[in-house]
């Protein structure tokens, strides 16, 4: 992969759900050596520190958790993402997955100004396809894909000026999808691969087909990596653990294939809750996966002892 100008953007978003702890995620990635790992690969890395949200507007849905704060984060991250894309490959250090409402909206805005289609690879146990109106939990970290694809049902949220086409989205690793989301997803052409599909056909074949489409379209590719894409055996530091996730081997293969495609233009690292980690091993696994997406190969990987 060519040398990149990488911008680390801390997004300590901790309002998308009730369980606290994701606000510590950005600094955990720094402590785990993300900047050094990327610089060792020859990239130029700038860390702009942690952002703070705008003052959020009102939302008329009382069942939502911290809606005004999430609106403020969405506006702040949308603008930061749009501006970062001029000169950098931004990595958004989360923070819960509600941050992707802003990060994806911003990178898609930038792609639209360049007449490039925006694609998105969603690596997650959950589809996050609810709207603010359909989420029964009120947790907005379950809504970012619904939001950035332009679904209705987000009163009070900023409009999505460049929605991502559902046909440009691939979801890998699904294993917890609510009934309302399942029905809504069935009416879209999002590529959906749950863990049964991955068990049956492997993870490389569907991903290769998707990346070929991105490349053929000269698309911009945003990858959103949720800690719970991984099986909790490997990555316990997440408040939404779902057994049966991707192995470390499968996850590294995904990231190396993304790197090989040359299509990656932006990246989210989300849902890390260091309060739930074991000696930092989830943070270090996520750093290793980010490094694989940006050029590290299997022979280059460090060996770590966790004892």
List strands and helices in order, with pairings:
Layout: E1 5-11, H1 25-31, H2 34-40, E2 44-50, H3 67-84, E3 89-94, H4 100-113, E4 118-123, H5 144-148, E5 169-174, H6 179-186, E6 191-194, H7 195-201, H8 204-216, E7 220-226, H9 248-261, E8 264-270, H10 281-293
Parallel strand pairs: 1-2, 1-3, 3-8, 4-5, 4-7, 5-6, 7-8
Record keyword descriptors for this entry.
globular; 35% helix; 10 helices; eight-stranded parallel sheet; Arginase, Chain A; alpha/beta; 307 residues
Can you tell me about this structure?
Helices cover 35% and strands 16% of the residues. It has helices at residues 25-31, 34-40, 67-84, 100-113, 144-148, 179-186, 195-201, 204-216, 248-261, 281-293, and strands spanning 5-11, 44-50, 89-94, 118-123, 169-174, 191-194, 220-226, 264-270. It is of the alpha/beta class and 307 residues long. It contains ten helices and eight strands. It is globular and about 55 Å long. It has a single domain, classed as Ureohydrolase domain (Arginase, Chain A). It has an eight-stranded parallel β-sheet with strand order 2-1-3-8-7-4-5-6, with helices on both faces. The model has no long low-confidence stretch (mean pLDDT 95). Helix 3 packs parallel to helix 4 (100-113), helix 8 (204-216) runs parallel beside helix 9 (248-261) and helix 9 packs parallel to helix 10 (281-293). Helix 5 (144-148) links the parallel strand 4 and strand 5.
């Amino acid at each position: 992969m060519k040398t990149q100008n990488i911008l680390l953007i801390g997004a300590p978003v901790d309002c998308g759900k009730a369980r606290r702890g994701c606000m510590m995620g950005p600094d955990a990635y720094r402590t785990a050596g993300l900047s050094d790992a990327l610089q060792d690969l020859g990239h130029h890395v700038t860390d702009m520190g942690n952002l703070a949200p705008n003052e959020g507007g009102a939302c008329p849905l009382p069942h939502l958790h911290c809606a005004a704060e999430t609106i403020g984060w969405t506006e702040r991250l949308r603008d930061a993402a749009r501006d970062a894309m001029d000169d950098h490959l931004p990595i958004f250090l989360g923070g819960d997955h509600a941050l992707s409402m802003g990060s994806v909206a911003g990178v898609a805005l930038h792609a639209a100004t360049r007449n490039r289609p925006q694609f998105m690879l969603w690596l997650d146990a959950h589809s996050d396809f609810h709207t603010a109106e359909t989420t029964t939990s009120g947790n907005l970290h379950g809504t970012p894909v619904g939001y950035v694809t332009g679904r209705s049902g987000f009163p009070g949220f900023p409009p999505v000026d460049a929605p991502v086409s559902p046909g440009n989205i691939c979801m890998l690793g699904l294993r917890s999808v609510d009934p309302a989301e399942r029905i809504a997803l069935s009416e879209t052409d999002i590529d959906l691969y749950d863990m049964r599909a991955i068990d049956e056909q492997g993870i490389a074949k569907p991903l290769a087909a998707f990346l070929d489409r991105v490349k053929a379209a000269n698309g911009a590719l945003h990858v959103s990596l949720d800690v719970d894409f991984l099986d909790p055996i490997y990555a316990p530091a997440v408040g939404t653990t779902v057994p049966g996730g991707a192995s470390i081997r499968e996850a590294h293969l995904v990231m190396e294939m993304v790197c090989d495609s040359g299509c990656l233009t932006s990246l989210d690292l989300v849902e890390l809750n260091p309060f739930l980690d074991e000696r930092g091993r989830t943070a270090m696994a996520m750093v290793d996966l980010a490094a694989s997406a940006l050029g590290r190969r299997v022979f280059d990987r460090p060996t770590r002892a966790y004892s």
